[in-house]
Design a protein that fits this description.
The complex is a heterodimer of chains A (262) and B (437). Chain A is an alpha/beta fold and 262 residues long. Helix content of chain A is 41%, strand content 11%. In chain A, helix 10 links the parallel strand 7 and strand 8. By secondary structure, chain B is an all-alpha fold. In chain B, helix 2 packs antiparallel against helix 10. The chains are: A alpha/beta (262), B mainly alpha (437).
């Protein structure tokens, strides 16, 4: 991605006395993790292509506190949440989009009780909206005929009942969508949730991401599609563990659509 | 002396129901040891959930074989129990098959005929269930938490069902007038010849089967309190009180909100002495280390669990050999609650500290830290139990009361505190990605 991305901040909008259509909540992974940053940039490319008036908080964004909450640290979560809510409310933010289902779930469901009420959507839902409105088009030839299996992120799927948006978006690529035996409501976790991303797993006979990767491999995919930066890392590691990185790639839905732009 | 059987019957009936009522009172008392939780919202949706999930068995059929077999036993149980009504009236008033006096012969025959067909289907289903538990060795019935009493409990329930169904059919088969009527004896008609044609013997067998049937039902009723079979009653309130918010939404602790607001309030006096008049009890504990720290719905969940293990078989941690089993979380919670209840009984209504608690003595940290909070267990439960909420409450206790999170998680949390990200990056660099190529 060599072209320069346009990434305005809320502060810049405020200085001009304007409000963006939507706030892009980048999240900690999307801001700092090398793999996740690629997803962030792919999504911004789509926002630019669709001429979406968006802004980010930049250095004014802080961790949602989601991972602290799942780890049991309700104090830290509420501190983070209240700081973020103060910033978001000061900017009078109404609508938020994020590529991270954990931020999505946390801001959508857990911030309202602390005074932060926003319309929060996941990036796959927003991409679907942009396509449906005709603001974003997909060429449909980059992945034509490829086999794609979508791994449901727990915090988008089971946790918030969104199973269709990512699949609808992927259909635009003209790829063949193949489902794992465990998908949608019964999808297996990638193994990163509940703060597992940040610790060694407990003693067991296998890693969760390897098991999930094996389930994905049963569909003989060319691509494993994800909708969460943590799932992406876990599935990428799983593919490496299975020594399949030459034949199978793990890509976020935003990246797949960004690669399939005219 | 003519009334002796009626009196004996009444005594047995009152004793059976009375003892059961006494235990149900204990059960309610135990559940009330939990914190209050407001579930007064969305009554319409709650009734709908109860009708769909408990009455309609909607989540049972997610696994079709077990689901269909379970529906047979469930429908059989409810329908055949209409017959118990007749038995009670007959027993109390010394009548015989009062139904025949109230209903026309074809209607009565149709009813009993349906009961008999269901009884046979239940027998078949129960035998398949037994084979699944004892011969086919399904993985979810072999976990370590299923050894000993839980395994026996499962089998005892099946034996009860077999005996009760057999007694019902034998009772009909040896009832000569009922057989002569030749309507409704769709199954018992085939086994009637096994018992010969001596009227005295037949009468003796019929009476014995009749008495054993009703006594068996009363024993089974009283067995419930000690068994996972409580779900036949508690599935209804449990699905009513099941979580309505999105599965990903975890509750925000109000006690923490108050403290955080105080900390963030620039006008608050950090050196303020506690209010002298504030005589409220000790400050609330964050999270849960014992059953009394959980809420009433979580304790109801524990009594409702029928140990089917669908949660555990969907759990990513369990599937990859970790110690965590959501079913065990529920079983441990119930076992500890029963223990606390017995303690209260033994100490005249007052709980006497026994040096034990749910955390550590029943559920280990290793189990709690293996959870990915993926909600697969919650999704899998056919009666809306939420094992994840208990795991979360105990993690909260570990972190906020004991500061005993795994070291890597402490590092992660320190990073969030210091620089607003789980990794040690500078917050000012948060937008650097936009300028990197």
């Amino acid at each position: 991605m060599s072209e320069q991305l346009k990434v305005p901040t809320m502060a810049e909008y405020m200085a001009e006395g304007k409000q963006p259509e939507i706030l892009f909540w980048v999240g900690s992974a999307g801001s700092y993790d090398d793999r996740a940053k690629k997803i962030t940039k792919a999504f911004v490319k789509l926002l630019n292509n669709a001429n979406v008036d968006f802004a980010v908080l930049g250095a004014e964004e802080s961790n949602t506190g989601d991972v602290a909450k799942r780890a049991g640290n309700e104090f830290l979560f509420q501190m983070q949440a209240m700081m973020n809510i103060e910033v978001l409310n000061a900017y009078e933010v109404k609508r938020i989009v994020t590529c991270d289902p954990h931020s999505f779930n946390c801001i959508k469901n857990e911030y309202p009780g602390l005074g932060g009420v926003y319309d929060v959507i996941h990036h796959t839902q927003y991409i679907k909206e942009l396509i449906d409105l005709g603001r974003l088009s997909v060429k449909g030839d980059t992945y034509k005929g490829k086999r794609i299996t979508f791994h449901d992120p727990c915090y988008l799927g089971r946790a918030n009942n969104e199973f269709d948006a990512p699949r609808n978006v992927l259909q635009n690529t003209n790829a063949t969508l193949v489902e794992m035996k465990k998908h949608k409501r019964t999808a297996l976790c990638c193994g990163a949730g509940g703060a597992q991303m940040f610790k060694e797993p407990e003693k067991g006979d296998k890693d969760v991401n390897v098991l999930r990767t094996e389930q994905a491999l049963e569909t003989t995919p060319d691509i494993i599609a994800t909708g969460c930066p943590y799932c992406n890392t876990m599935m990428t590691d799983g593919i490496k563990a299975k020594e399949k990185e030459d034949s199978i790639t793990v890509l976020d839905v935003a990246e797949l659509i960004a690669n399939d732009q005219g | 002396m003519d009334y002796l059987p009626n009196i004996i019957f009444a005594v047995i009936l009152i004793a059976g129901i009375g003892y059961f009522a006494r235990n149900i009172k204990k059960l309610i008392r135990n559940i009330k040891l939990g914190h209050d939780v407001d579930a007064s919202d969305n009554k319409g949706q709650r009734w709908k959930n109860m009708a769909r999930i408990a009455l309609g068995q909607s989540k049972m059929v997610v696994r079709p074989i077990a689901g269909v077999l379970h529906i047979i036993v469930y429908v059989g149980f409810i329908i055949i129990n209409i017959e118990v009504l007749e038995i009670i009236i007959d027993g109390l008033f010394g009548t015989h098959r009062i139904g025949l006096k109230v209903l026309s012969e074809p209607v009565y025959g149709f009813l009993i005929g349906s009961f008999e067909i269901l009884a046979l289907l239940v027998l078949v289903a129960v035998i398949v269930f037994w084979l699944r538990r004892n011969v086919i060795n399904l993985k979810r019935f072999l976990s370590s938490e299923m050894k000993g009493w839980p395994k026996n409990d499962g089998n005892i329930i099946l034996y009860f069902e077999v005996v009760l169904m057999c007694l019902f059919l034998v009772m009909n088969a040896t009832d000569t007038t009922f057989q002569q009527m030749n309507t409704g004896n769709v199954i018992s008609g085939f086994i009637a010849p096994w018992f010969g044609d001596n009227p005295d013997t037949l009468h003796l067998i019929e009476r014995s089967a009749w008495w054993l049937h009703i006594i068996g039902i009363l024993i089974f009723l009283n067995y419930l309190y000690f068994s996972k079979h409580l779900h036949i009653l508690l599935a209804f309130p449990n699905t009513y009180y099941g979580k309505l918010t999105p599965k990903g939404q975890f509750n925000n602790l109000d006690a923490v909100t108050n403290e955080v607001k105080f900390m963030m309030d620039p006008n608050a006096d950090p050196f303020a002495a506690p209010d002298e008049d504030d005589t409220t009890e000790e400050p609330p504990k964050f999270g849960a280390s014992d059953v009394m720290d959980l809420n009433k719905i979580q304790l109801l969940n524990a009594y409702t669990c029928t140990e089917c293990g669908r949660c555990t078989s969907e759990c990513p941690a369990n599937q990859t050999g970790k110690k965590l089993s959501p079913r065990k979380i529920m079983m441990d919670t119930r076992d500890r609650l029963a223990e606390v209840g017995k303690n209260i009984d033994a100490n005249k209504g007052e709980f006497k500290a026994d040096g034990k608690q749910l955390l550590g003595d029943y559920i280990t940290k290793e189990e709690l830290w293996a959870c990915t909070t993926c909600n697969a267990c919650v999704e899998a439960c056919p009666v809306s139990i939420d094992p994840l909420s208990i795991i979360m409450e105990m993690r909260r206790y570990l972190v906020m009361e004991e500061s005993s999170a795994p070291m890597e998680l402490n590092n992660m949390m320190t990073n969030i505190e210091n620089n607003g990200a789980p990794w040690p990056y500078n917050q000012q660099d948060r937008l650097n990605w936009a300028n990197e190529n």
